[in-house]
Structure formats: structure tokens, C-alpha cells
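Figure S4 source data
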Amino acid sequence: ARSLVFVLSKTIWRIPTFVVAFVFLEEMYNGFMLSRTSKQIFIGSVYIIVALVVVGGFYWNKYRPTCNDNVQNGKEEGIDCGTVACGKACLVPIQALVVEDVQLVKTPTGDFDLAVLVYNPNYDYGTGAVNYDLIITDFASKEIMRRSDSFYILPGQTKYVVKTSLSGIPDGALAQVKIKSIDWQRVTSAKDITFIVTREAITPETNQTIYQAVITNNNNFDFDTIDVNIVVTDSAGAIIATNITNFQTFLSQTERSIKVVWPFSLPVGSKVKIEVGTNVFNNANFLKRNGTEEKFQQYY
């Protein structure tokens, strides 16, 4: 009904034109001496022309892309969008984060470490604040712990969220992550934020294990805070421990050494996976250079 009213509003102004044209043709018709059959053909042709104009106007108004009618039409690739029809690309609907794995592992000290693997299926959106609850339940599904926290994630990224030294948890407990809210940010010109990890070394000792590495800031930005998440797997690929650290003031094209310690010996053949990141959606995380503030909005 709304489309019909729209079309009529666009077409009604043409009616006087049709009337004038019809009167003009009628005068021409009256001015000629035509046979009965010729007159019928003439009148029929006039009505056909008028009908074609009306139908053509209706079709053109219905199917041409207006880019503001809340309808996908013409060459639009979506509702009122499309590079060819409207000069702007259609936005892909935001998909939910995928929690791919949650593992709660007991360490030799009796505490528990946590590793949560999260995937962001959106390549145009990231977030600096995923607010979630970590819920620990016992073997009878009774809640024994709930903690609120947040993390950030880049577009298309798969990352670990880790916790260490969780105490007061009984054997057989299970962990789950409940995402409460996400502050999505659309990324318009994504830049690769990369950190290079080299010179890794694991040093096992009698009652502890030391991990050391060198991280290079291979970006053109100076960062205030860098986060380092570490996940340890055994020779079979099962997660057996985690660790976390961070450091401040990481200048562009410089190196920093890190050192983390587990208060127990890791099994022979253990492998360390390290993830280095920074919250690129927090402008305060970019340091001032030469007295001016970095334009972090370049990223989104």
C-alpha cells in the first residue's frame, strides 16, 4: 500500500499532461476524415500509449534504486546500499563471538589455570571491551565461583583469554564463559598490529620452570601497555598450564625481554604458545610523540 501511494504521488502530476495530449489527439482525430475502422485503431492506439506510460512509470518508480526507501530494489546489493546503485558498500551483519574451547586444568601446586579460546568471525568489527562472567561449577553443577572481567579482540582474530592460579576449586569442576555485552567498533582501514617473538628459551629447574623471550614492536606506534598470554601444552597437545604478564611503554621498532616463571617443573616435551597483544581500541594506549597525540582513530 505504501509503495502504491508513493508511485501515485510520483505519477499523479503527469495526469494533466496525459489529458492535454489526449485532447490534442482528439482534435487531430476530429480534423481528419477517417473510416470507422481507422478511427477505432486510432482510439485504441491512444489508450495503449497512455497505458504504457502509466505502467512504465509505475515499474520505473517501483524498481529503480532510490537508496532511501527501506527496500532492496534496482541494482542495490542490500537495503538502500550497494556500490553501483548507491555509492556505498553494504555492511555485513555483526556475528556473535564464538567461544571455541574452555579448559580448566589443575597444576602441580593444586591451583587451577584457565584457557578460553575465542574467535571473532567479523572482519569489519572488533572490540576493546567484551564483558563476560567466568562461572565455575562443581561436579553437581552447583556454582562455586563467578568472576566478571573483560578482554579485547581484533577483527577476524582467534585468541586465548587466560587466568592463572585459581584457588578454592574442587577436582572435577567445570568452567564456562558467559558473554554479557560487547562494545563493537567498526574497522574501516585495518592495519596489522604485529609483535615479533624471538629468542625463546625454556629452562626447567628442580621446582620451577622459567620461560624467556624477546618481543619486537614491529609497528609505527608507541604503546602504553602490552599484554602477553601464554599457553603450555604437553607432547600430546593437551593444555597443562597458562601464564600471563604485561609491560608498559613499548616504543616503535624496539625490543623488550620478558620472563615468566611457573612454580613447578613442566613435563619434558612441553610446548609454549605465546600471544602478544594490545588494546588498539583504547586511544589512551597510544603514547604521545613529539608533544602530539597519536591518531589511533586511523584504525577504526
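Figure S5 source data
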Amino acid sequence: MVTLPSSPKQFNFPNLVQGVAQLCRPTLSVLAAMASCLSVFVLQPQTSVWVYLQTATVLICMTAGAFAINDFDDIEKDRINHPERPLPSGTLLPHHAWWIAVMLFCIALGAAIPLGLSCWIVVAISALLLWNYAPILNISGILGNGVVSMIVAALIFFASLVAERPWAMLYPSIFLFFYILAKEIVWDIHDAEGDQQRGVNTIANLWGLTPAFSIAWGLIGLLLISIPLAIARLTMAHPALFGCCAILMLLSYALALWRYQIIQTSQTYTNLIVLGRIGMILGLFGLFGTVPSL
């Protein structure tokens, strides 16, 4: 049973705005939009500004809505793992997060309509999976990891649909899927206590921390091996850009992961998140080098 304050603490406009911003993670939401818009640009440079605005609206609202509904579902777990977040801290109430998520998903679905039926279907399926993420997680935390990884990879696939080149970014989408899967497994290591109390079966809880770290390392290793193979076998516009950026992304995250595995503290976990985000930006630019020429 959720035990939260009956009203938000220090209920005033500045605190409410701060709580909504913390709930929706605007930095990550904008980053998702930038990734898709940059993908559209490299795939189809003649795309109109209106299409970019629609694409950005879809991705910002989908990503922010995903964070909102996830925090709504994870209140009890966050009381243990992330008590500073707006819902467990009482800055916002659960029904605030629920309605914010509904509004954002509706805006995303509406903005996707002019982009075409295939784009709308991708957005609708993603929204449905995100809305039902908690029940999926209750079935299997490992399945939940796969859902999150698939939805993040869909950012790139969605952009290829917008640009009307649906298979041009297949390898980057697969690459991103396994990279996010590795990160999801590591995040479950950090959240193991909260997941265990909720009865969520993650790799860390089912098999232990060492196998979880090993699987994450294995995925990173497979991605490193895939880089020279992809350069050799795929037609890329800028293979050197892809190779350098993708390797730097993986190595920077691997360094942070190695430190976190040695000593699991809040500082090493924060470093892991920061380097992961920086590497993600670098890696996204590198993945654009995989685009075949028009």
C-alpha cells in the first residue's frame, strides 16, 4: 500500500514547476527528440521544419510521459532507491503524475497523426507498452528490460519511418537496443533492494549481482565486436565517424561500470549515469555515420 502525504509539501507554484520538471526529466526528453530529429536530418536532409517540430513533439511527450507513468508505478520502490524524486518526497501527488502522463501521451499520439499511419502505429504501440510497463514488470523484470530497450531503439526506427527510409537505420537500432539492455541490467543491480521488496524478478535478484554484471559486460563486448564487422560489411556514409564515436561511447561506459562494480556507492553510480549520458550523445552522432548514402 502506498503511504504518501495527503498533500504536497510546501505547495506553491515554484515547487510545483520543479516537481513536474523532476518528474518529466526534460533533459532526457529533449535528448530523445534531438536524437530522432538528427536521424531524420541525416536520412532526408530536405525534410521540412514542420516535420521536425512534429517529430520533436512526439518524442519529447512520449519520453516525458514514460518517466511520469514510471514514477507513478514505482512510488514504493523509489521510496527506497530514490526518495528525492517528486512523488516519494511529497512534492507531487500520484494523481498529478497520472494525469500528466495521460496528457503527454495524448499529445504525442495527436502529433504523430500527420506523420503517417506507420509512425502513428509505432507511437501507439510504444505508448501502450509504456502504460502497461508495471504489469509487464510484475510478470518479469527481464521482460521489462527488453520492453524499455525496444522502445528506446524505436526512437531511431521512428525517425527512419518519418524520413521514409524504414530500413536504413536497422543496424543502429539493433546496436542501441543491446546497449540500453546492458544499462537496464546494471540499473537493476542498483535497484535490487526495491525490486526484491516489490517481488520483481530481475537478473540481479534471480541470479545474483555477479551474473548480472557478467551479462552486461558480455553485451558490451558483443557491441564492440560488431563495430568492425559492421564497418566491413555495411555501406556507411561515414564509417570512421561511427567507429570512433561508438568505441568511445562503449569504453567510457565500461570504465564507469568497472568502477561501479568494484565499489557500489552513490558516487560511482552517479558517475555511471553521467558518463552513460555523455557517451549516449557521442554514440548517437557516431551511429549517424552508419546511414547509407541517398
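Residues 14-167 form a domain with the Tetracycline Repressor; domain 2 fold (CATH 1.10.357.140). Residues 242 and 287 are 5 Å apart (CA to CA).
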